Amino acid sequence: MKKLVIPLLIFGIVVGSHWFLPAQAQGGDCDLSPEDCAILEAHAAKMLDTTTLAIEDLAFKGLIDLPDPIEFSAQGDGITHFEVKQGTRLLFDIVGEGVEETTKQQTRDILSRRLVTLGFANASVQIVQNQLVVEVPISPLPESLVSDLTARGGVLLEFVDFSEAPMDVTDGACILTDVQIAFGYLNGLCSPENPGIGSDGQPDGPPFHSIMTGDELADAWAEATSFGNWVISFALTPAGQQIFADYTAQHIGDRLAIVLDGIVISAPTIQNAIIGGQGQISGDFSETQANSLAEQLRDKDVLPLKLLLNTTETRSIFPNLQMLSLNLTPFVCCTSVSRTETDLLLGIFSSNLSISGSSTPMMSIDYEENAITDLWLSLVAANSNLSRIASTKSTDSSAVFQSEIPLQALFSNDFLGRLLAEFLIHLLFDEIDFAAYGLTYGKVVDFLATTLAGFPSDDILLVRRYISLDDYSLRRVELSTDFEFPVSLLADTLGIPLFEDVSETSIIHFELQADFDE
Predict the structure, then answer these.
(1) Model confidence at 71: pLDDT above 70
(2) Is the peptide bond before 140 cis (omega within 30 degrees of 0)?
(3) What pairing do the DSSP bridges indicate for beta strands 210-213 and 157-161?
(4) Distance between CA 293 and CA 302 in Å, rounded?
(5) CB 24 within 8 A of CB 384
(6) 163 in helix, strand or coil?
(7) Residue 313 confidence (pLDDT)
(8) Partner residues linked to 194 by β-bridges
(9) Which tens digits make up the pLDDT trace of 421-465?
């Protein structure tokens, strides 16, 4: 008999509730029609006034396409409880034109990590066109929060082409580079006393070209030379090694400047091609300065662009999930297995998630306190392509909004990835003795979670929300997806017999529908 778990039901209810409003419903710019934008705004206000959502009818089903197909389904009801908090919404403008989306996403991720470090794990960061929207569940804010968030962090290390630089541009000069302009730091690193010098040797002249930045550093450390001088040694990534080797081979006899925060630290002449991928930054450093600089160079959370605070406002923001209770009657799998009733209680501040059957636990997952919050933040960021579609219910007075979530965003989240791994293992494998194959259950879960996180997938999860046009409450949520997964790779790599004649990839389908009480 196969064991069963229900992590996707947890995910479905969380996605469907006001834990997962699209950006347009959370104060972001709305690109839909005025009517649709007004509906979303009214819906957001309604959800922020809602502390309990009763699930009147829940249906969950799925299929794993194998020679002996695995089908699973569940029906039931449930309830969710939330607590709404006052918070602060910060709107930051991104400095610079034509900033790439990958750069914006990198900045969003850095701000999210900084907020967690500062003790605001429940905060959210969203990209809305050329702005970043930060919502923090506290009001008023600490005075230093804005400066802590927008500080560039670390140091900007550049390896700059000095092959045509005037000879009087040397150590101590503050120079302008194309990287500084791309990051929005034009003239931001220099000062009136030490103005930015261009490649023509004049203030505000054409920028120098940086061949590489500190992003290509694999490591940096301080050490003393045989003469007692302190230097910063560094090792490059494989990509950095190739860039450095190619450039130095083509520029023997030219100068290459090492620049920190716009200041030329040294500009040695290239004597030969440097292919080892290691080097040193020398200067008049004390031991303390060398160690501090090496630590800053190892810091990868350097903002790749400049942010300016636009507005700050106090408002009711996203709720915290306090409890999720599901009653499933029955839970059926594999055409032959059923459970009479399954109760699930999820406390967001508990240290253990337990899903139990009629008498004994089916699964127990340990997770960090902020795991579900981190999941929510990553999914909000991934939610995209919002549009209004026609209702499938002819008698329904609801507006239906559809959005998409890349499955890779789900697979790469540690918490959800492990839940999905547990789910698939219980469905795919009979109750076998993993030890007989030199494995433990934990190792199998780890392997599958890692496989999910690294498996390239262009598939999406469709999310549909039915919003009542009478009172703008949430009436229904529908989720559906079909994705390919290498089930055969899983069995072959682990050496565990699964099914005969399994194709290289198998289609996994699931769909969920939850109707909420009026």
Answers:
(1) yes
(2) yes
(3) antiparallel
(4) 14
(5) no
(6) coil
(7) 80
(8) 191
(9) 877 777 776 556 677 788 887 888 888 888 888 777 788 888 888
Express each pLDDT in 491-514 by its tens digit: 777 777 766 666 667 888 888 888
Percent of the chain with pLDDT over 90: 9
Q: Which of 377, 374, 372 is nearest to 321 (CA)?
A: 372
The C-alpha atoms of residue 429 and residue 418 are separated, in whole angstroms, by 16
Number of neighbours of residue 435 by Cβ within 10 angstroms: 9
In this predicted structure, what is the pLDDT of residue 181? 80
pLDDT of residue 74: 75
Other beta carbons less than 10 A from residue 471's beta carbon: 11
Nearest to 456, CA basis, from 424, 486, 427, 428: 486
pLDDT for 168 beyond 60: yes
Alpha carbon distance 466, 481 (integer Å)? 18
d(CA 63, CA 511): 9
Residue 102: CB atoms within 10 Å: 9
Task: For the chain, give the longest Cα–Cα distance.
Answer: 85
How far is it, in rounded angstroms, from Cα 163 to Cα 248? 11
Residue 275, CA atoms < 13 Å, CB-side half-sphere:
5
To which H or E segment does residue 296 belong? helix 287-298
CA distances from 334 to 2, 71, 74, 123, 479 (A): 8, 5, 12, 41, 21
- Paired tokens of 137: 């569940």
Q: Average pLDDT in the 376-381 region?
A: 57
Q: Write down the mean pLDDT value for the chain.
A: 75
Cβ-based neighbours of 429, under 8 Å, separated by 6 or more: 2, 496, 498
Cis before 142 (ω within 30): no
